[in-house]
Amino acid sequence: MRKINILVTLDENYIPYLNIMLSSLLVSNPTCRFDVYLLHTAIPAEALRETVALLGSAGELIPIRAGDIGLGNAPTTSRYPREIYYRIFAARYLPQTLDRALYLDPDLIVNGSIEALYDLPMDKYYFAAASHVGGALHKLNELRLDMDEQSPYINSGVMLMNLELLRKEQRFEDVFEFIDTHRNILVLPDQDIISSLYGPKIYALNSFVYNMTERLFAQHVPFNKNLDLNWVRKNSVIIHYCGRNKPWKDNYFGQLDVFWREAEDRLREGAGLCADR
């Protein structure tokens, strides 16, 4: 079986959603085995029992308790806890033997094979990620964050990481200095930092394929007669429920929650449990 390194960072509250995401990953990638690295602050082992059982013989959960490494003054809120910074420093925490890892947010569904994404040539790039921002909003981010005009403002929910190159070239002092200088204008702290500091080192992914969102879908449906739920099912490898519009909430608005419901039902019925795969 092909082995793939997955990285997740979250707190205990998001474990139920992590399990749904991982079940969709397993079902959509039956020929792969996953080492799932969990960077966290203080999740007790007993809270992860269902996750370990879910992975079964199809993968291994590897929790890594991360320290603050100087993040005591980094801006955090209930929506953006300290864990969001762990992905920026993943190369420092993950085993030195790993050359790459695919970071996935827990609030997404994997709807197809991730092998083509995982195998992208990353020789000169730190990250591969998609952008949902263009036009005037991108210009605003350029001014707000002193970004390079050609740099994408990325969504950090799906990121392929070149750990080998990051270990060689990433300077942690640059991140801390950026936080210090921009702390009063950071909106989405991890995305602001990665986009601004590493823009030229980011490989731009197709957002319709690797980071499809409800907003992206709604914005383009009126102008693209081929874009419908059928197209998403066949072509969108990752469907991401970013922002406050979550499919597990009663007030979800949109159409893409159908994919989350399907994954949730599979897991509930036991089809997502892959211990005997």
Explain how this protein is built.
The protein has 277 residues and is of the alpha/beta class. 36% of the residues lie in helices and 17% in strands. The chain is built from 12 helices and 9 strands. It has helices spanning 15-28, 49-55, 90-93, 115-118, 135-145, 163-169, 172-182, 189-198, 207-210, 214-220, 229-235, 257-269; strands at 2-9, 32-40, 59-65, 100-104, 108-110, 127-130, 158-162, 202-205, 238-240. It has a 7-stranded mixed sheet. A two-stranded antiparallel ribbon has the order 5-9. Strand 2 (32-40), helix 2 (49-55) and strand 3 (59-65) form a beta-alpha-beta unit. Helix 1 (15-28) runs parallel beside helix 2 (49-55). The longest helix is centred in the N-terminal third of the chain and has 14 residues, at 15-28. The protein starts with a strand and ends in an 8-residue tail after the last helix. The model has no long low-confidence stretch (mean pLDDT 91).
